[in-house]
Design a protein that fits this description.
15 helices; disordered N terminus; binds geranylgeranyl diphosphate; mainly alpha
């Protein structure tokens, strides 16, 4: 059982810890130019849901069966690293050369406020800071912990890179007809594969890096990987549905953009009803994986519900 009274208390506490740690680990002047520091803070501290870092802390907590470790302290650097990478991806995705969006996290997008050049540099800096953070923290000479940090670093880098998020974004640009001479048409299978990279890979790495830092063995890591793959897909399907019927002020971003840009989405390919049912199927698969792995009394089932029911 979690040491917290309720699971929602776990999520609330995790968000507070993450926000405090992000603030602490954001680079500051004089080490970093004041303008860059201010612009990084503008996006990172803009009030995202913190789903990915909460997943990291929850997975670390779930594998700590005997309650022998302070898994939050162990996994917090990886949690903040995935939020840095996620924020960089949103900043770059909003640029005119990509999705060309002007509203994010309820605020004007970073390039609208600081210009494209600074927005590109903030994304670049956040990505590098993420890896520096996991390499540095928690500071240790313990060989097992050093091995876990290296493995978490590898998992996050792989998810962020050419075979993960950046690869998925490449296919997305091709599918949107934004790469002259390289357009592709997505089938339901290739749409799923694109999302498994674009949003799924980092969601998976968020949970898996947490499990690794929390002390998981190989079989626990395998269960968390399969669970997070289902949750990542459910997250994406719900995201597509919210783009059709969500509320712009609750979402803090432009709605109706996928249809306007003729993007291949779950509602576009399957219709809203089937898309909703597919998200529920993912959550059912995820629940079964948790039961098998004996993680069903952790905070992970409630996080799956949060993903399914979210309004923003
Ligand atoms: C530019 C390399 C590069 C990658 C971009 C993840 C991504 C790839 C683009 C994001 C575009 C987008 C809106 C995708 C839909 C799913 C998604 C990642 C939504 C935003 O995540 P939330 O809802 O946002 O967790 P908050 O603001 O709450 O953190």
């Amino acid at each position: 059982m979690t040491p917290f009274d309720t699971v929602s208390q776990f999520i609330d506490e995790a968000r507070v810890r993450v926000d405090r740690a992000l603030e602490h680990w954001l680079p500051k002047p004089p080490a970093c130019p004041p303008l860059l520091s201010e612009a990084m803070r503008y996006s990172v501290m803009a009030g995202g849901k913190r789903l990915r870092p909460v997943l990291t802390l929850a997975a670390a907590d779930a594998v700590n069966h005997d309650r022998s470790r302070d898994t939050t302290a162990l996994a917090l650097p990886a949690a903040c690293a995935v939020e840095f990478i996620h924020t960089y991806s949103l900043i770059h995705d909003d640029l005119p050369a990509m999705d060309n969006d002007t509203l994010r996290r309820g605020r004007p997008t970073l390039h609208v406020v600081y210009g494209d050049g600074i927005a590109i540099l903030v994304g670049d800096a956040l990505q590098a800071e993420a890896f520096e953070l996991v390499a540095q923290e928690p500071a240790t000479q313990d060989p097992d912990l050093l091995r876990r940090k290296l493995e978490a670093l590898r998992v996050i880098a792989e998810a962020a890179g050419a075979c993960g998020m950046v690869g998925g974004q490449t296919i997305d640009l091709q599918a949107a007809g934004q790469v002259a001479g390289h357009a592709v048409t997505l089938s339901p299978d290739t749409l799923r594969a694109m999302h498994a990279r674009k949003t799924g890979a980092l969601i998976r790495a968020s949970a898996v890096s947490g499990a690794i830092m929390g002390g998981a063995d190989a079989s626990m890591v395998d269960s968390v990987t399969r669970w997070a793959a289902e949750i990542g897909l459910a997250f994406q399907i719900v995201d597509d549905i919210l783009d059709v019927e969500g509320d712009e002020s609750a979402l803090g971003k432009t709605v109706g953009k996928d249809a306007a840009d003729e993007k291949p989405t779950y509602p576009a390919l399957f219709g809203l009803e089937r898309a909703r049912a597919m998200a529920v199927e993912c959550a059912d698969h995820a629940r079964a994986i948790l039961v098998d792995a004996k993680f069903d009394r952790s905070s992970l089932p409630a996080i799956a519900d949060w993903v399914l029911r979210r309004k923003n």
